[in-house]
Specification:
- The structure is a single chain.
- The chain has 54 residues and is mainly beta.
- The protein has a single domain, classed as Rubrerythrin, domain 2 (Single Sheet), CATH 2.20.28.120.
- It contains no helices and 4 strands.
- A 4-stranded antiparallel beta sheet has the order 2-1-4-3, with no helix packed on it.
- A hairpin with a 4-residue loop joins strand 3 and strand 4.
- The site of zinc ion has 8 residues, from loops.
- Zinc ion binds next to loops.
């Protein structure tokens, strides 16, 4: 089994703080991921920021 150097991170809605998405992130990327994504709780597109997966 080859080890892939990727972390799983969660994307959290900045409005309601729900963790709506998870994605892979390569370890050498230092910047925090920030994406405009649809939030099912807010029922609209909101800013989602990278956070740790529980
Ligand atoms: Zn939300």
């Amino acid at each position: 089994m080859a080890k892939v150097k990727k972390n799983i991170v969660a994307l959290k809605c900045e409005v309601c703080k729900s963790k709506n998405y998870t994605m892979f992130k390569t370890k050498n990327v230092k910047e925090k991921i920030e994406k405009n994504k649809y939030c099912g709780t807010c029922k609209k597109h909101t800013t989602h920021k990278e956070t740790k997966v529980d």
